[in-house]
Amino acid sequence: MPKARKTISSDKDIVVDLGKLNPKQIEFFNSTTYFTCYGGAKGGGKSFATDTLAIKYCIEYPGIKVLIIRAHYPELERNHIRPIKARLPTDIYDYNGSSHILTFYNGSVIIFGHWSGQESENEYQGQDYDVIFMDEATQFSERTFRHLAGCLRGSNDFPKRYYLTCNPGGVGHFWVKRLFIDRKFKVDYAHPEKTENPEDYSFIFAKAEDNIIMLEKNPNYLSNISMMHNSDAMRYGNWDIMGGCYFDNFDPKIHTIKPFKIPKHWQIYRSFDYGLDMFACFWWVIDEDGRGWCIRSFEAENLSIQDAAKATLDNTLMYENVICTYAPPDMWNRQKETGRTIAQIFTANGVPLIKSDNSRVQGHMVMRSLLEMAPLHDEYVIKMLGGPEKAPKELPMLMFFDNVGGVLEDIQSIQRDEVNPNDCAKDPHDITHTVDGVRYFCINRSLVSEKPQPVVQHDELIDGADENYDDFMTGGEPSASYMNY
Prior knowledge:
alpha/beta; Rossmann fold; Nucleotidyltransferase, domain 5; 19 strands
């Protein structure tokens, strides 16, 4: 990569050495797609490529606004802020440590940002950038990725680009894999602007062997990453392996099934998690083994309490007799404005609630245990799966229809808490709503559906084959014995 030379004044010439790039990094530089993802194995030179390309944009386009964002600030400081400052001549930039903004002599800026959940969503609302670098994208949720995409705008002639770097694993593993590895794009005919254009997405796979300079300086690097617990993902960039998820015993091939007709005698329940940022409601049925089947879900943002209650009723079929609806305990907190609880408002709008146990650790561990296999005895399920010869001998005690939406991906994505490995991580917050909604059902008791008893014909109630139902109930034809009563 040639040196970037820019003249600041007639008597001063500043030279910035952008360093030597490997072929994969050059491919990253030359990409012209709107979204470019660079990554795979650990050690592919992602951070250096990000920093170098950000510097290049700022020097070549005076006044451009570049955002480099990571999930946590300490990594941002260590991997980007210090290295970039070390590479630049001190007389061509100013750095504000409070705002984390590096301003170049020509008015270009690099904003170093980190993401702290819902608070950050409000912070970045209304901001605009010309180029965004999302470093370690698999540490972010898809909602965050899309929220920041809305900040990529500006009425100028600067290029608009969104760059991502990542390794397999993490809370964002599945959406990154869907878009950039599997290339499974969503089509929305009702809202064409939401349709994902395949031409906007490109992936550059890099592994440590591509980073020749690093391996020359650290020849033991490959041996070191091979000793990591998720070495197939880190060493070889294997996207079919994912580590760190809490529900590592969840497998869509085992725990999901195509929708089928529900027997009338199976008990029906609901559970939900509610917040203005997300309402996630689930419908459950219980078979004769006590196995829970998630048959329906509803997710929506920014719903009022009344609208959430209406959505619950609208998505409950007319003939479904729901035993109860489990909800989190904070639904019983009184609101300052009205003095009423959210539970009271739900009830007044036709959805009475049962307070669920809110123990996170216990609830998540119960949920994990229900994902394990158990003997299958329910005759309806056995018949539905092909009869005694074809049906499996065991099924998980928690099953899902394969059309219940984002909860399936969220269960696979949510990570273990770094402080308490017995609990799920609370961040990113936007994927916890669905998991919490499932947890509220799992931690509560549900009635095993009883096998319906055969209908008894009237004549079968009579002791004696020679007497019919009418004679049995009326005493038969009149006789002399009536006169002696």
